Amino acid sequence: MPPPRTRGTALRHRLAELRGPDVPAKALDARALAALAANPGCKRRAILDGAGVNKAALASALGSPSVFGQSQFAFTRGNAFEAKVKADGGAELLRLVHERLDRTAEPPAHARVPELTALGPEGRTARTALALREATGAHGEWTLLDHPMLALDVAGSPAFLEPDAVVVHPDGSWTVVEIKSFPMLDGSADPAKVGAAARQAAVYVLALEQIAARLGAPTGQSASERAPAPRVRHRVLLVCPKDFSNVPTASAVDVRKQRAVTARQLARLTRIEDIADALPDGTCFSPELPAADLTAAVESVPATYAPECLSACELAFHCRARSRASGAVTSLGRSVRAELGGLTTVEDVLSAARGESGDPDDPAVAALRRAARLRAEALGREAVAPCH
Prior knowledge:
This protein is an alpha+beta fold and 388 residues long. It contains 15 helices and seven strands. Strand 5, helix 8 and strand 6 form a beta-alpha-beta unit. Helix 2 packs across helix 8, helix 8 packs across helix 9 and helix 14 packs across helix 15. The N terminus and C terminus are likely disordered.
């Protein structure tokens, strides 16, 4: 008789069923987690990302192909720049860390670069944790972890994350390094791109804090025998090309605000197993399904569309079309939705503005009717205004 399934095993089996037979899971990366944290009310994205569904392939199968993502040219350029930054054992990268974040430490004449290869993401995560422990104990030395593997619990399911680099300082503290191919002109870069990089780095900081908390767990019976938890620095290093060259430069970015927002939003996410349990039996998101069946499966999970999704989610065009077809006010933006209170559709809003429905004591209804009167008066005055 086979052994009974544990809760985790049952969930993994259920998520594999949602992806479809023999469909490999798409890894949930920090960029996806940052986007998910920005819209924690979207159960559709939560279950699709949790199940490892390829949303780009799904969007194409639904007839709303995505244009979201990085071009192959930008991807190749980014890899070449990262290789340049990490050349010679990361000498230039460590110089930038010392210069921007830790001038009081000894300059990094040389650094330890531990081998992090292992079998599978779980193995790499364990190897990274061991390397971090060893580097933290090697006082007075610099250590560069090249593409470590971190794990972060998201709605009851682990997400495996791979930052560009993590540096362990001589004092044992840890710094996240983000390497981007967009330029830094005259010491500053595009604020939108820097903000996206900061949100992504904040996810890595959260994952490192979980590792640090485990390393600082009790080692004996008394509090005096506890190993102090390593410090994860909240200022990350953003490395970019200088001006229009390929010469690396860097800036320290404080991600405390992004870290706090991301932690709060991820904590609000409904557990993935709760969303999965609420789905009809036989639900599957495989792009190989007939269009009608696939559409029904996707629509069985509620979405929370907002215009910001267009820059962060592969399914945004599909969700926007559905939102517009249903007349949902969320397609106009979160700020508009918040102002309208209980009026959830465009038809409800127009009806309330015309005085055909709605509670006159509702502030949103009263404001709409006043706006409608002002508009009518303005149009009336314009209609009788003399021509000069």
